[in-house]
């Protein structure tokens, strides 16, 4: 049974990646729009855009990746958000380090940060948020 569950968990990594790519497009697109067109400071824009990406990511993962039918949506979204906030802290730290110490553009630093946060996000969401999904 444990081996079957493990295989099922690993089979979800590709849909999780695709949903992550979608939410990353929302995240990075909003950050770009906020910094370029509205001249919002890059860290404020990164935090705002990440939060919007969280909502897209939660809904798509709940229904498309994990096919979750739980009715405890508020608790589940709170758990999803907690895992996502831990990723946000890592994400913002990497963006700040990339811009401040490595002279990267905020957009390039954001792309690198998003890639590095992917594995923790998958582990956290599959272990904590959607652990009881069918």
TrEMBL record:
TM spans (from-to): 12-35, 41-61, 73-95, 101-122
Entries under InterPro entries matching the protein: GtrA_CellWall_Glycosyl (IPR051401), GtrA_DPMS_TM (IPR007267)
Main location: membrane
Domain GtrA/DPMS transmembrane stretches: 16-130
GO cellular component: plasma membrane
Any Gene Ontology biological process: polysaccharide biosynthetic process
Keywords, alphabetical: Membrane, Transmembrane, Transmembrane helix
Listed Pfam families: GtrA_DPMS_TM (PF04138)
Membrane topology: Multi-pass membrane protein
Compartments where located: Membrane
Entry's family note: Belongs to the GtrA family.
Official protein name in the record: GtrA family protein
Source organism phylogeny: Archaea, Methanobacteriati, Methanobacteriota, Stenosarchaea group, Methanomicrobia
């Amino acid at each position: 049974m444990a081996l079957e569950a493990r295989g099922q968990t690993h089979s979800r990594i590709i849909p999780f990646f695709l949903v992550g790519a979608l939410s990353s497009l929302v995240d990075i697109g909003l950050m770009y729009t906020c910094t370029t067109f509205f001249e919002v400071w890059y860290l404020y824009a990164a935090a705002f855009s990440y939060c919007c990406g969280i909502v897209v990511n939660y809904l798509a993962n709940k229904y498309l990746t994990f096919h979750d039918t739980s009715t405890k949506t508020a608790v589940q979204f709170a758990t999803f958000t907690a895992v996502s906030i831990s990723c946000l802290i890592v994400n913002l730290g990497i963006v700040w380090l990339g811009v401040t110490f490595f002279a990267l553009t905020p957009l390039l630093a954001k792309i690198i940060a998003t890639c590095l946060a992917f594995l923790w996000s998958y582990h956290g969401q599959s272990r904590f948020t959607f652990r009881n999904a069918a």
